[in-house]
C-alpha cells in the first residue's frame, strides 16, 4: 500500500502536513505520525517509531523546502 502526499509546507520550508523525505516520516499539523509497526519491531525499524508525537520544527535534520 502507498500513500499519496499532498504536502503543505510553511514559509520556513518545513512540512506542516505531508511527508518529510529527510527524516522519512509522515507529518500532520507539524507532529510526526506513528509508523504503525508492532511494538516488537520498533527498535531500529524506522524514524517514525522513534519520533512519533514530536513537533517536527524542533527536530534536527528536517527537509528544507524553502
Kindly describe this structure.
By secondary structure, this protein is mainly beta. The protein has one domain. The chain has one helix spanning 47-51; strands at residues 8-9, 15-20, 25-28, 31-32. A 4-stranded antiparallel beta sheet has the order 1-2-3-4. Strand 1 and strand 2 form a beta hairpin. The mean pLDDT is 85.
Percent helix range: under 10%
Give the class from helix and strand content and strand pairing. mainly beta
Main sheet properties: 4 strands, antiparallel
Oligomer: single chain
Cα gyration radius (Å): 12 Å
The ordered string of helix (H) and strand (E) elements is EEEEH
Structure described in brief:
The chain is mostly beta strands and 66 residues long.
Characteristics:
single chain, 66 residues, mainly beta, 4-stranded antiparallel β-sheet, 1 helix, 4 strands
Helix and strand topology:
Blueprint (H helix, E strand, L loop, with lengths): L7 E2 L5 E6 L4 E4 L2 E2 L14 H5 L15
Antiparallel strand pairs: 1-2, 2-3, 3-4
Amino acid at each position: 500500500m502507498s500513500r499519496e502526499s499532498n504536502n503543505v509546507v510553511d514559509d520556513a520550508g518545513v512540512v506542516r502536513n505531508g511527508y518529510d523525505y529527510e527524516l522519512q516520516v509522515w507529518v500532520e499539523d507539524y507532529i510526526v505520525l506513528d509508523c504503525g509497526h508492532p511494538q516488537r519491531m520498533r527498535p531500529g525499524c524506522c524514524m517514525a517509531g522513534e519520533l512519533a508525537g514530536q513537533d517536527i520544527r524542533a527536530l534536527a535534520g528536517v527537509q528544507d523546502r524553502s
